[in-house]
Amino acid sequence: MTKLKITVGNVDELADRTRGRLEAIESGADPEGLDEVQPELRFESYSELFDLLSAQRIELLEAIATHDPASIRAAAELVGRDYKTVHQQLSELAELGVIEWTDTEPGGAKKPQFPYDGLEIDLDLVDDERPDPATA
Q: Residue 9 gets which letter from DSSP?
């Protein structure tokens, strides 16, 4: 397993980099560092990042990674929150690819799974492409 890298920046830049890697693979070339590909989730703003990584969601991710709950309800019990809130938070995390759902059996409860070793948050505090708030 590997860590999920979380960054803030231009989403188009990530798409361009991914597109370039795919083209290199299709042409048979070995793109530099291909073995070291790390899953990445990129947000366009710090606000979006902090909405995802609230203290409650981090606590929920930690509980799932540590205790491997069998269902959404079990995850809610682990963090002492109501089912509806935890279901909504897990659905948002699943939509972003931070967690995955594992069906225990047809018609059974959805089991949340954290498929990474951890999260790696990479924030470039100095970005030449971002306008300086003092001069904007």
A: S
Q: How far apart are the first and last CA of the chain?
A: 42
Both tokens of 124, joined, read 């470039």
Per the CB < 8 A criterion, the answer to whether 60 and 79 are in contact is yes
The DSSP call for residue 135 is T
Domains of the chain and CATH, by start:
3-122 (1.10.10.10)
Contact 85, 73 (CB under 8 A): no
Question: 110-113 and 100-103: which strand pairing?
Answer: antiparallel
**Which class for 41: exposed (0-12), middle (13-18), buried (19 or more C-beta within 10 A)?**
middle
Please, what's the b/e burial string for 79-97 (b: 16 or more CB within 10 A of its CB; e: otherwise)? bebeeeebbebbeebeeee
Q: Are 94 and 80 in contact (CB under 8 A)?
A: no
pLDDT tens across the length of the chain (136 residues): 689 988 887 656 655 555 555 566 566 666 555 555 678 888 888 898 888 889 999 999 999 999 999 999 999 999 999 999 999 999 999 998 999 998 767 778 899 999 999 999 888 776 555 555 555 4
